[in-house]
Design goal:
The chain has 387 residues and is an alpha+beta fold. It is built from six helices and 17 strands.
């Protein structure tokens, strides 16, 4: 009996909830319908009470005096707030990679060819071979350097091309094809860095040359850029030569030269010529056929291998005090910018024997030892054979 009463109460409660839900739904629907019916009337009432503003068109007065208006000072709007004002830039500098003409640079105290290359072409150098290409360009376009970094002096004016290549004065018999072959290193030197190849189209299409591709005529006397071109570098040999008397003679003419008949053979291996192994800035590269050890002034310089001194003394051309040793096996070594030397031409020396002191004589920007190794096939990077 009691269970039946409970069930009846639950049923009545459910019916009450259902009626309340239906009542809420009906009220919401009625509100939406009422809004839809009354919304247009409300909008009309608001439009009547709040009219829209009409656009005002300025009309000058009919009696405006144009002469009086012209005599008025120019109106300047006063600044109402502090502000940063950007001044117009009347001068801009183009990036190095946009240059189409050479620039001139006056050599400063302490400059080296590779420092100049890094200063003017830093944004264009992406790999080590690029440094060599621009060094070639520095030497090729400044013949007074004679392809030797030792000839670089403060006050000289260098011509620096916009890209690696040769700035060339056109002659009457030149053709685009002949000039491209003339300055293509692969024609005469298979060991040149990759990229030294000149195509005739490179000359025609270089924007700074201003050549019409449809009619590529170039007037004699015109300077043009040969992109990628290079001329052979002159490598000075310091191997001993044989004189008319059959004796050996020094490779250089100067106060330190002599003739000699002494023979001494090196071991075929080299030791460091300086107690300091630190490279002070000059590595082996075109025009700088050795390395610069950061030796202090007067610090000992040693024979890198046994041999006979083939030159000992002052030498013009930037060398300063110079010692050259002939090792009797096809190799010779050079020790440059010495503050002093304690050997004489024709003297036999042993590996490790002191031959002089490091210095800064000749074309030098500070105490160091410039050291070179040469064989019958040319210069060798000393760092490739030193221990």
């Amino acid at each position: 009996m009691e269970n039946n009463q409970n069930m009846q109460k639950e049923a009545r409660a459910k019916r009450s909830y259902a009626w309340l839900a239906w009542l809420g739904t009906a009220l919401i629907v009625a509100g939406l319908v009422s809004f839809l019916i009354w919304q247009p009337r409300i909008a009309k009432t608001m439009a009547a009470n709040y009219p829209t503003t009409k656009e005002v068109v300025y009309q000058p007065p009919a009696d405006l005096n144009e002469n009086a208006l012209a005599s008025l000072p120019e109106y300047t709007s006063p600044a109402t707030q502090p502000a940063l004002i950007r001044e117009p830039a009347t001068h801009t500098e183009a990036d190095a990679d946009l240059r189409t003409q050479p620039v001139e640079y006056v050599v400063q105290e302490g400059d080296t060819p590779w420092q100049i290359v890094e200063r003017f072409y830093a944004d264009l150098i992406s790999k080590p071979a690029d440094v060599f290409r621009y060094l070639y360009a520095v030497y090729n376009n400044n013949p007074f350097l004679q392809d030797n970094s030792q000839n670089l002096k403060p006050g000289q004016t260098l011509l620096l091309p916009p890209v690696p290549g040769v700035w060339y004065k056109w002659t009457r018999n030149d053709t685009v094809q002949s000039v491209s072959e003339k300055f293509s290193p692969y024609m005469w030197d298979p060991t040149v860095p990759e990229g030294f190849h000149v195509n005739p189209e490179d000359i025609i299409n270089f924007i700074g040359n201003d050549i019409d591709p449809k009619d590529p005529k170039i007037d004699p006397g015109t300077f043009i850029m040969v992109p990628g071109g290079a001329k052979p570098l002159v490598v000075v040999s310091f191997a001993s030569a044989t004189s008319a008397s059959g004796m050996k003679r020094s490779p250089f003419d100067g106060p330190g030269a002599c003739e000699f008949n002494q023979v001494a053979f090196g071991t075929g291996s080299f030791i460091y010529p300086s107690a300091t192994h630190f490279i002070s800035g000059g590595y082996f590269m075109p025009g700088h056929w050795g390395v610069d050890f950061g030796s202090g002034l007067g610090s000992a310089v040693f024979a890198a291998d046994s041999g006979v001194v083939s030159y000992a003394g002052w030498l013009n051309g930037g060398y300063g005090n110079l010692v050259v040793i002939d090792h009797g096996n096809g190799y010779s070594t050079l020790y440059e910018h010495l503050s002093s030397y304690n050997v004489r031409c024709g003297q036999m020396v042993n590996q490790g024997e002191m031959v002089g002191g490091a210095g800064s004589t000749g074309n030098s920007t500070g105490p160091h030892l410039h050291f070179e190794i040469q064989s019958g096939s040319g210069h060798i990077d000393p760092l490739s054979v030193l221990p």
